[in-house]
Amino acid sequence: MIVFDAACTETALDPDAFGALSGTLRAGGLLLLLLPHGESSVVAAPSPYLGRLSRRLAQAEGAGCWLPGERLRLPEPGPGQPRSSNDCSDPDCLTDDQLQAVKRLVGLKRRRPLVLTADRGRGKTAALGIACARLLASRQVTIWVTAPRPEAVAALFERLEALRPQGGRQGNVFTDGQGGRVEFVAPDELSARVERGEAGGQGSWLLVDEAAAIPAALLGQWLAAFTRIAFATTVHGYEGSGRGFALRFRQRLDRQAPDWRAFHLEAPVRWAAGDPLERLVGDLLLLDAEPPAASCAPLHEIDWRGSVLATDEPALRDIFGLLVQAHYRTTPSDLQRLLDEPELHIRTLQDGARPLAVAVCADEGGFEPELAERVARGERRLPGHLLAQSLAAHAGSRAALMARLRRVQRIAVHPQRRREGLGRRLLESERDAAREAGVDLLGASFGAERGLLTFWQTLGFRPVRLGLSRETSTGEHAVMVVAPLSPKGAVLAEELAQRFQSLLPALLAFELASLDPDVALALLAEGPSPALAAEERADLIDVAHGHREPALARPALQALVRRAAVAGLTESELAWLAAWAFQGRDSVWLASRAGIEGRRQVMARLRDVVARLLADESSWR
């Protein structure tokens, strides 16, 4: 039995914790949820989110309700299905679904990736552990395991230790004493090891759990590096929805590994199919939200407030479904913020009554000088001001705290209506609305991926900050962009952009040396592009057509790369050259990227690229 007390404001409902704890109950368990009560005869609430929660509970067929001064009303017991005992033919597995998943994992073929999907509570992660145990029992193999965090694969190591008791675990590494090994590595570290040639290659194994919470770019890198690979993800669960995973990653799979296979685990492990609590929690937290059906009809705009959206269940489900499928990880607490945060602006493009695109924005900044100074020094931290506080703490801009900012938190377009300019239309409308409201800067923060960065740049947004380390859960550096909306905002945006550009070369040489070169090139394209000096041109000619050591002409090569980037050249060879000139990538990395061997071939290619850029410079000067 679980008693979840959300009746007091001091212990307000935490949707993520509620969703997580509800999933720990087994068949026959009880969940008692205490909610605040007002003067009305129906459960009241101090927030739109709790108000919706109360209304859904009052309408739920599978929930009992006990109001103050009234008798306890219990639901009529449904026909239900008793949770089946372990009648699986395999003693290590709890369901036939889990057994089939294990067989597919153990029998992974070269270059035939497996995609495992399941709602929570289906034994997906445990199946990974059973498969690891059987692989170790049959051969000496090293299996790499990754997930957004180590806790996500706890069930994997539990099953592995239970089935291979002769082995032992130290930290994130399990060894069986016979040459077999299973090691968990965080996504960012795994990516770094692949780049250094320390992971992947012939005969390599990789199991990726909660793949929906990892960027497709990293998944694609591992897809190319490991000969046997499986991606597992939760579709509906408190950890975050994986609905967008298949939509975004399917194209990459089709392109890189057209023989990939999929398997979905249906049967629950801890309760019966059709469990009333699972169904109720899914409804309360919108774990099963889906985008609406799409059409090609003309669209019109609607502005929403959370308090209104909380009372329109069909619209809320459609909007949240769009957000779920567009983002790598949408959690139950995101629904609470959508309804309860008063500073949120929600704008949709509607096909009649059905939203097909949505943008969610929040106002930030506007601090008094004294408070701005304290926040900038780290003495105060105010929730809900991510962009303003980050620019102050990391870019040293007090002005960013005092200016009025509006941050685009999420933008989502129906998958069947993408590449029609709907996202651009939403952002342009938001820009106009923010300008009329007296906002100085419109900004956003997102994972630094080349295509996404280009999208924002084409709309007039300028990069002003890049995180120095990769996000552990996403494997990407976070980039912040802004667009000015007022004269004050124009001055501030220019100051922030210039400061970032002056710092960028030094960051690329050190802290950002492992940044994707395509992203580095897109950032460099925002910087200055002075004409090449006569001395620089002479150095470049000596590199291209003579025997000058390129390292001794690095400033000239950096200037050439910047000019080409600003001119709009985006060829892979230019990014390759930028990786050498600004990031100091070594010959091993450069050779691997170019598909060549040895330092001699790397230098020959570098000279050839410089020669062609010099020859073409007159066309883009």
Secondary-structure blueprint of this entry?
Elements: E1 2-5, H1 15-22, E2 31-34, H2 48-59, H3 96-106, E3 114-118, H4 124-138, E4 142-146, H5 154-163, E5 168-170, E6 173-175, E7 181-184, H6 187-195, E8 201-208, H7 216-225, E9 226-234, H8 243-256, E10 261-265, H9 276-284, E11 300-304, H10 306-309, H11 313-326, H12 332-340, E12 344-351, E13 354-365, H13 369-376, H14 386-395, H15 399-402, E14 404-413, H16 422-436, E15 441-447, H17 450-458, E16 462-466, E17 478-484, H18 487-509, H19 517-524, H20 534-545, H21 554-566, H22 572-581, H23 587-594, H24 598-620
Parallel strand pairs: 1-2, 3-9, 3-10, 4-7, 4-8, 8-9, 14-15
Antiparallel strand pairs: 5-6, 6-7, 11-12, 12-13, 13-14, 15-17, 16-17
